[in-house]
Amino acid sequence: MLGSVWLLLRDGRRVVPDSPSPDPSSDPEQRVIPVLLTRRFAAIVFATGSLWFIIIALTQYQSIHLAKDVGLARSSLPSVFSLFFGCSVVGKFCFGLLSDRFDLHRVMASAILMLAIALVALSQMAVDANALLYGYAVLAGLGFSGAFTCIQILIAAHYSGPLYGRILATIVLIDTLCGALGTQTIARIREWQGDYTDAFIGMAILATVSAMMVLSLTRTTAGSESPTHAN
Fold it and tell me: Which single residue of 41, 120, 186, 218 could bond 57 by disulfide (Cβ 3.0 to 4.6 Å)?
């Protein structure tokens, strides 16, 4: 087996010198910077960064909110989160399937709006509102997983090609920083307000803006892109 691998690598080295040298002007490093300065890239980063901000904060603090702020019995939490994560599995499959059959931007915006509605429900949660509680778990699970699944599909749909790896790495880096920012921001809001109510309302508003940003991408075409400093 090792001999076969060596022969394959040896043959590959023979072929490489015969290929023409790449044109310096076609170097991906020289083409990726203009792509990062487009309005489309800014809109995608805002949408995905907002989702990471929301999703990381939600998964970190929803249990604290339900147990401490709402006063829900700890014995009820496992059933709620089992439903939440069960629906998240269904959401990944369903929204992935829908994105293959319908317009990706509308599908992703629908998932984000479901998440926004769930955040509003969470902010208005009461200890005896069982229907609202389990309705939140279903909507949040579907919306969270659907939006999260659509992020990479969205990036691939707009940037598939030789620059995809670099652009994906850049967006993931920014999204990760936004997730860390969300954790810190929501914690500070709770220290200031005493609960998570205002924080969840703010996250719902941010999710709505993110959905609108995703929908705006349907009007964006690669040929009409211009850098952010244009116009």
Answer: 186
- Reported as a single tens digit per residue, the pLDDT across 43-56 is 999 999 999 999 99
Question: How far is it, in rounded angstroms, from Cα 61 to Cα 44?
Answer: 26
Contact 211, 109 (CB under 8 A): yes
For the chain, the straight-line distance linking the first and the last C-alpha, in angstroms and rounded, comes to 59
Structural domain spans, the chain: 36-216
Q: What is residue 126's DSSP assignment?
A: -
Percent of all residues in the chain with a pLDDT value above 90, rounded to a whole number: 25
Q: Which residues contact 148 (CB under 8 A, 6 or more apart)?
A: 51, 55, 92
| Residue % of the chain over a pLDDT of 70 | 81
CATH 1.20.1250.20 fits 36-216, yes or no: yes
Instruction: Report pLDDT for 218.
Output: 78
CB atoms < 10 A from the CB of 150, how many?
28
Reported as a single tens digit per residue, the pLDDT across 180-190 is 998 999 989 88
Per-residue HEC secondary structure of 189-211 comes to HHHHHCCCHHHHHHHHHHHHHHH
Helix axes 77-101, 130-159, angle to 10 degrees: 40
Contact criterion met (CB below 8 Å) for 148 and 51: yes
